[in-house]
UniProtKB/TrEMBL annotation:
<dbReference type="Pfam" id="PF01451">
    <property type="entry name" value="LMWPc"/>
</dbReference>
<keyword id="KW-0560">Oxidoreductase</keyword>
<dbReference type="GO" id="GO:0008794">
    <property type="term" value="F:arsenate reductase (glutaredoxin) activity"/>
</dbReference>
<dbReference type="InterPro" id="IPR036196">
    <property type="entry name" value="Ptyr_pPase_sf"/>
</dbReference>
<dbReference type="InterPro" id="IPR023485">
    <property type="entry name" value="Ptyr_pPase"/>
</dbReference>
<protein>
    <submittedName>
        <fullName>Low molecular weight tyrosine phosphatase protein</fullName>
        <ecNumber>1.20.4.1</ecNumber>
    </submittedName>
</protein>
Length: 150
């Protein structure tokens, strides 16, 4: 499947991004998608487990003029809505959980393997570089697979 909103299909009205702890990848994807998609598209993020906010996310989003605001990591159980047109999973753990939860639902679950930048070591610049790589990876996927821009 090349895109979520492929030619001839409708743009999803609601998208959930899921990762392990809703601390890095999924909130970053949420912010990027909100900036790239039409205003009427509902975008949310959640994690399989409870996580802690990561300050490097703020650093790399601020570089491109975006913010996650006062976002605090939340689990699936803490979501206000539980129906989405598409669930985009960014980590294996989240993908397995999403497939398990949606077995009896008409929801598309799409897996975008995304590296965990917290495994990066080295200088602050090298670590921030790993977060930038994740941001750019997600921005490219959102542009090409959801927003329909190549």
């Amino acid at each position: 499947m090349s895109g979520i909103a492929s030619p001839g299909s409708k743009m999803p009205r609601s998208i959930l991004f899921m990762c392990g702890m809703n601390a890095i990848r999924s909130p970053m994807a949420e912010a990027l998608a909100k900036a790239a998609l039409p205003k009427g598209t509902y975008v949310a993020s959640a994690g399989v487990r409870q996580g802690e906010r990561d300050p490097f996310v703020d650093v790399v989003l601020d570089e491109i003029g975006l913010s996650i605001g006062r976002h605090q990591p939340r689990t699936l159980e803490e979501l206000e809505d539980d129906y989405f047109d598409v669930i985009v999973t960014l980590a294996p753990e989240a993908h397995h959980k999403a497939l398990e939860l949606t077995r009896s639902m008409a929801v598309d679950v799409v897996y975008w393997p995304t590296p965990d930048p917290t495994v990066a070591t080295g200088t602050r610049d090298q670590i921030v570089g790993a977060y930038r790589a994740v941001r750019d990876h997600l921005a490219g996927l959102i542009a090409s697979r959801i927003a329909g821009r190549e």
